[in-house]
Every structure is written in structure tokens, then in C-alpha cells.
Design a protein that fits this description.
It contains 1 helix and 32 strands. By secondary structure, it is mostly beta strands. The protein has a 4-stranded antiparallel sheet with strand order 1-32-31-30, with no helix packed on it. Strand 20 and strand 21 form a beta hairpin.
Length: 358
């Protein structure tokens, strides 16, 4: 049952998150606006701003008093001789290029910022990270004392009490590529999808004939964040995995590939089961399954599909139990309440829809 439509200031919803007690939720919008909502009345509590335009990740602390937000600037950033940042318009960049003026800019093409806010006042408490390496995954520790991030530099970093400490690296070799990652909600585990570096086969006897290249394998690894040890590892069931989602209890991982297939990996049995959707097996380079969410304490899974619907499935039966239809654009983010009775969805159009489920 559709309980409400909440219009935000942004044109697109990029992030949704519930507080651990389910009393509040946050919508992160394109343009950098953050809106805190009362989950019971569906009224705005307060509106504040992220440091950058693209809000991608938001996590409440376990006690609900603080909120960590990661936002990204994906445009061109120039630096003056004094080290100050300048963000020119497109026209200004084109004029410099026409005049053959060299530009010193961020080589990664993005700047990532992590901020910690007080949920009661909306005041920014700290900005533990501002870096050229974008954040891939973020979570509070289970006790709420630390904030964990994983960046493109492939290192897990722990922020606690104003200190920053690198804990462990998730790639064994410099040539390995970190492709996808997600923390379990309690921060105890980290799931990574890593493509191992390509290797050259044993050289042949003929010097002029180079050895063939053996493509590196894609592997899914589950790390214990406290120890940095690998808890489980399997070969990826597909070479086109594009998204990784962890379940609330950390017992399952959903893997989405480019053929709209969803593999549910059971960490206890080390088995991956296929969840079929109406689009399974179809290759579409423009439309993907954007989001998957596990309902806490149940076998219910929500999936946003390219036809602008959200479908609910029971797992492991794979039976579709409901279809939630969108009146706007593609649904890009999903979030269940802690009791699994409310589902939020958002995407193009800047509207958050609130569904109450039986």
C-alpha cells in the first residue's frame, strides 16, 4: 500500500537510509540537499547540505545521534599556485582550451567528502575525509565509535575520535582491480568484488611468439573488518557483476550482473542461488537493475527493475509476491525500515515513495 509521496528539492534521489530505531530516515538528493524525515508523520524534520553535489552514501550511527554522509564532486577542479580550489564553468574551460592554456586539475576527475552531522541540530560535527579517491563503501562500527570507509585506493580506513588509521588493504597485488564493495550494516564485514590481474602464460620456446595472456579471475571476498582476515571467498558466478548488496544480518550477499540476473550468495553454505526476474537473461547496456534491498528479519527481497517497477520476492522460493509501480522515472535506491514493514524508493524526479507492506 502506497502511504505517501514526499517531494524533495532535488531532481533525483541518490541515497536513502533509515535510522536504526526506524523513527527517522534521510533522503540524499542530487545537488547536495539532505532531508531528514519523521518516519511516523512523514514530515520534514530539517534540511541541510552536503559538501558536494552528488550525495551517494548515508549511514546513521547505531544510537541515531549522528549521521555520516559521503558526497562527490565529479566536475573539473583547478588549483591555484596557492593551492586554492577553483571550479570553472564549462565555458571557462573551453576558453582555456582554445587559448592552449595548460590546466592543473584533479587527475581522478572527482573529489569525495565525508561529513558527520548531529541529527538533532543538523550541525556538521566533523569532516573526516576529503580526498581524490572516491569512497566505495561506508559504515559505522557496531559500537558506533568508529566510521569505516573503503576508497578506490583499496584500503579500509578507520576514523575514530579525530584520528585516521589505515587498517588493511583488500587487494593482494598492485595489478588487482577493486570493482564493487559493500559493508554489512553493522560494519562487521566487508564484501568486495576483485578482478585479479591478468597473467602471462608460461613462455613458449619460440622467442618471437609471446606467451598468451590469461585473464584474471573475478573473486568475491568477505572480510572481517576487526581483523582484516578473509572469512569466505568464491569465484564470481558471472563476469559481468555490476552491483553488490549485503543483507542486514550479514549472512547473504546479492550480486547483480549485466544480464539482469540476481545471485544470492549464502555465506554459510558458500552457495549462490539464481533469483529470476522478468528481465533475466536480457542484455541491456542502457538499463540495469539499480538497487536490491533485503528486508530485515525475513526472506523478502525488493528489486528495482528497468520497467520502472519495484518487485518483491520471497527467497529462496523466488516467488514474486508484489509489484510496486512507479509514476516517475527509474527507481535507483531502496531502503527497508528496521522492522521490514516499510519500504522507501527513490530515483528520477526527486520523489520518495513510502510503501507500507503487509
Amino acid at each position: 500500500m502506497l502511504e505517501g509521496r514526499l517531494q524533495t528539492r532535488g531532481k533525483e534521489i541518490r541515497s536513502l537510509a533509515f535510522s536504526w530505531d526506524g523513527k527517522q530516515f534521510l533522503s540524499g538528493e542530487e545537488g547536495g540537499t539532505l532531508t531528514l524525515w519523521d518516519a511516523r508523520t512523514l514530515k520534514k524534520v530539517r534540511v541541510f547540505r552536503a559538501a558536494e553535489e552528488h550525495v551517494r552514501l548515508a549511514r546513521f550511527s547505531p544510537d541515531g545521534t549522528t549521521l555520516a554522509v559521503e558526497s562527490l564532486w565529479a566536475g573539473l577542479t583547478l588549483y591555484t599556485v596557492e593551492g586554492n580550489e577553483v571550479r570553472p564553468s564549462t565555458a571557462e574551460v573551453e576558453r582555456c582550451q582554445a587559448a592552449n592554456v595548460g590546466l592543473l586539475y584533479n587527475p581522478y576527475g572527482a573529489l569525495s567528502a565525508v561529513q558527520v552531522f548531529d541529527t538533532r541540530t543538523g550541525k556538521e560535527l566533523s569532516r573526516p575525509l576529503r580526498d581524490a579517491d572516491a569512497v566505495m563503501a561506508m559504515s559505522y562500527s557496531s559500537d558506533g565509535r568508529s566510521l569505516l570507509t573503503l576508497q578506490w585506493n583499496r584500503v579500509v580506513t578507520c576514523f575514530q575520535g579525530g584520528t585516521r588509521r589505515s587498517t588493511f588493504a583488500v587487494c593482494n597485488h598492485p595489478g588487482d582491480d577493486l570493482e564493487r564493495a559493500d559493508f554489512s550494516p553493522d560494519g562487521r564485514m566487508l564484501i568486495t568484488l576483485i578482478k585479479e590481474r591478468d597473467k602471462r602464460a608460461y613462455p613458449s620456446d619460440e622467442v618471437e611468439s609471446p606467451a598468451p595472456i590469461i585473464p584474471g579471475k573475478r573473486k568475491l571476498r568477505v572480510w572481517e573488518t576487526l581483523t582484516g582476515k578473509v572469512r569466505a571467498e568464491i569465484l564470481a558466478p558471472s563476469e559481468t557483476i555490476c552491483s553488490v548488496f549485503a543483507s542486514p544480518d550479514g549472512g547473504h550477499v546479492a550480486l547483480v550482473d549485466g544480464y539482469h540476473r540476481i545471485f544470492i550468495w549464502d555465506l554459510a553454505t558458500r552457495e549462490a542461488h539464481l533469483l529470476r526476474t522478468p528481465f533475466t537473461g536480457q542484455a541491456d547496456k542502457e538499463h540495469f537493475i539499480e538497487a536490491v534491498a533485503f528486508a530485515p528479519g525475513s526472506k523478502r527481497i525488493a528489486v528495482s527493475l528497468p520497467d520502472r517497477t519495484v518487485r518483491l520476492f520471497d527467497w529462496p522460493s523466488g516467488k514474486s509476491t508484489a509489484v510496486l509501480r512507479s509514476q516517475a522515472g527509474l527507481i535507483e535506491v531502496l531502503a527497508f525500515s528496521p522492522d521490514g514493514k516499510i519500504l522507501l524508493d527513490g530515483g528520477k524526479g526527486g520523489t520518495v515513495r513510502v510503501w507500507r507492506l503487509p
